[in-house]
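Subject: complex prediction, re-run

Hi both,

The earlier run crashed halfway through, so I resubmitted it with identical inputs.
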Amino acid sequence: MEKYLYIALFAPIVGSLIAALFAQSPKNLFTGIFTSALIFVSFISSMILLNYVDMDKIVHVEMMDWISAGNLSVPFGFVVDQVSVIMMVTVTLVSTIVHIYSIGYMEHDESFNRFFSYLSAFVFSMMILVMSDNFIGLFIGWEGVGLCSWLLIGFWYKKHSASWAANEAFIMNRIGDLGMLMGIFLIYWNIGSFQYDVVFANIVNLDPSEVTWIGIFLFIGAMGKSAQFPLHTWLADAMEGPTPVSALIHAATMVTAGVYLIVRAGEIYILIPEVGMFIASLGAFVAVFAASMALVNKDLKRIIAYSTLSQLGYMFVAAGLGAYWIALFHLMTHAFFKSLLFLGAGNVMHAMDGNLDIKRMGGLYKAMRPTAILMSIASVALAGIYPLAGFFSKDKILEVAFNNGSYLLWGALFVGAGLTAFYSFRLVMLVFFGEKIYEKDGIHPHEAHPFVIYALTPLALLAIVAGFFEHSFHEFTTQLLSDYEFTLDHSVGAMLIFATSAMALSGIAYAVYKYKRGGFSENIENWGVYKLLSNQYYIPKLYEVAIMKPFTALSRFAWLNIDNKIVDASVDLIAKTIYGGGEKARKMQSGNLSSMLRWMVVGIVVLLALAIFYRPTV
Amino acid sequence: MDHILSLIIFFPLVAGIFGFLVNKDSIRVYGITVAALEFFLTLALWVSFDGNIAGFQFVEHVTVISHFGMSYHLGVDGISLFLVILSTFMTMVALIGLSIKKDAKNLIISVLYLEMTMVGVFLSLDVILFYLFWEFSLVPMLYIIGAWGSDKRIYAAIKFFLYTFAGSVLMLVGILYMGYLYHATTGVWSFSIPDWQLLVLPFNTQLWLFGAFFLAFAIKVPMFPFHTWLPYAHGQAPTIGSVILAAVLLKMGTYGMVRFLLPLFPDATIYFLMPIAIVAIIMVIYAAMVAYAQEDMKQVIAYSSISHMGIIILGTFAINAEGITGSIFLMISHGIVSGGLFMLVGCIYDRRHTKNMSEFGGLAISMPTFATIYGIMLMASVGLPLTIGFVGEFLSLIGFYKVSWIMTLIAGTGIILGAIYMLTLYKRSFFGEITNEKNRGLKDLNGRELVALVPLVALVVILGIYPKPILTPIDASVKKMIVLMEKKAVTQKAKDFIIKVNTIKGGE
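This time it finished cleanly. Structure:
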């Protein structure tokens, strides 16, 4: 079985490196097909491993020592267990589809080969992240996906906004990474190992305050990667990247790494329910906060990005409250329908010649029926309507919140469910139905290549049926993860399901009703609330004014005033004083006999004074 | 193999002297050949070096002035071995990348002479000999900056020389006093480092001697606020000067700290630990901010060097095997990465005769290979895992975490600030459309530049993935040194501290 582990892990990097050889040559279809094929191979291997792990077996390999110094020793070790194999399958499945989709999406791009090289490198990093058997290996993948995300967001590097967004994403992530490193350091000095099994076996012996700190630090890392408030601004800006990248990295896989970390370190978080409660509360806040921004945004991709943010909030609620398998389940179903939604949006974007303003679309259903159907499926799944995947996973999270007695959280998520349904269908209605506004811009939409549509069907299928795997998923993952006990009455549970479904349905119904009748009047754009939401609560502005500008000013001050005018000037002052003193003293050596004699007298007086008054004590 | 160390030290000198006889047109080939031979000599040294022995190997000892215990005493251990290899490797790479035609003969001979002094510093076990090489190293650098530099080269060269020289003079006083103390305690004269390491000094004496040595090293590193000579020196020096300065000369300072301060004055080290760590943190953050404010690409890298040296000092003063081993590894990796970055700046300077970032933009379009190599070096500089930059930074920080978690957190902001200034630099220079017509149609890297840069890139990746061959010998020597420090310490506080920072869990 180790063979399959290596194939699953290394096939993507082989593809990436080979595609990189063609990075500077013109488009070569080979790179696209070759990398896609290798990712598919990786997917097949992951499926084989899934089947193997299902028989209660775990594959664990240690390749070689990486770093060792002092008492510290980190190997390159990989483990395929119930959690990592779920991630592997999800990641490789979505990646395969995104790769195939990109062959069509990027067909006219001059840097076609480079794109596939980056994309496969991302998959490799993500595989390291989920397969590592220790925290440092996880950190390698963690930073690796950050690098690939930087490369891919800024893929169209000629665009100022793209490279800006790429840098923002990298730097925001680094803030989280520092937190995570601190957590890792704390683990090391308390336990002396980074291996998951050793750490989890010994974590109970630690002082509770130490465990709390570990939990907090690791979560800061998760906040950066999963774009939780207040490190969330990069995710919406990351939509500057090509759409397949948004689908793969900024919806299905990388941004869920934070959730994966919490799930993986569940044995730590189970000991510190206060931190878990904080995570859940922040998650619930983000779920509503992000959904509210999605309500008014006009940018097709940004709406979906906010939706991703909001759904990550849901996952964190589950993870924070100790329902790890549910968090993982929502992570998986979300990966399917959200990447489908994004890839559909990519088709729309191409049809609209790159225009993203949903107010300039409308009535696209006629021109691109398959995409419309696929995106509608994804939206229904996202809204959480029975029997699609989102229903099962999202409802479970609400149940967990209620079961936990956190009615406030439940209330937030409940409202969030309504908002989700509304903005999803606002998008669908504005894009696919109603008046064809795009005709005014002289755009002639066209559907994507058939093979692109076919590539999306597996995702659509999964978005529909994945929910029915709930029981087997539960059984499978709880072999490793601690189970979550529901104490709710069945009737209460049924009531909750009914209420949430009603909420979602009414959200959809309201959106359909409203936008059938031409939507809201333009007046609301002048409302304070609308402005607040469309400006993202002025948070990006705040960051610019309160952090970036002062930082730049302070840096310039440090350079021009402190470094040049104080530190360096005092060095030069010393030099000038010595030099100036020498210049003045030089006049003594004038060669004039009478002045020389005068100096001699001074010297004799000094020597005499010394001889009389100075008595060394020897 | 008996006299391999002498051979390594004096081969560049002898070859340099013969260099005067070589024809002007073939001097480049000659210089590269000599540097390559020298590099292979150090590789041979590594091959025959026994990584399991923590003490000095290949020791040569010839008494010179027996009356005062001064001798010709050489030796190598895990701490110095890789700095020696780094010196010869970077000299070779820098010579391959050399593009200066004017008076190339004098320049190359100066570089060979400089190589001798660098290797000499790392291999000397006699303190007087160490001091000789330490001071000699200033002369060729003074000449390189002063003769081949930019407009303000004389000012920069003299500032570099006088500033570092002033620091060293105090060290000479310290050396003489230490020699005197050794004589007073044991009755014999000795200037040998292994002898000195066994000498137990009273606490107050340690404080004074520590101060005298520390100042010399602090200026060399350079630590805040003694750093202002460095931006001038880098700003004016030709590429080859900057490469060697950043890659090797700065490391003499941190090497001195590891070799002298820690084992000779353990109590004083612990006593001064916090103030030094605070200064190191200031270096990390302040230099990163100043780097961010720069307009000149080379100055960004110059200030980033100061920032990284701060992390090295933190690792050294963690006083545990993780931290010190990490800081020595970081010396190596920073040498390779900053040397590479300075060479890259040199490549673009040769084409555009400016280093100002506002003149660039869109370079990734006209020079894709250059942009790729720059990108890799940049990622190593910000410490991305699986590049060489991560290992040392990670170990240094994890080491210092045991001393103080809050200070590590503050110093750790360096990894964020590092990303800020480096990515901003990259965006301004390489991304965007070509706005300046002069950047259109620039030639990508040529063969000579690639030969110089590709080995650096290869090392960045290989040692990032497999740093073990370097870490193991360093670690063995460092562990030995820590045991020695603990044994030697005269105050209980220092003993407890050393044990505490080397234990996992407990000892709070």
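Residues 274-477 of chain B form one domain.

- K.
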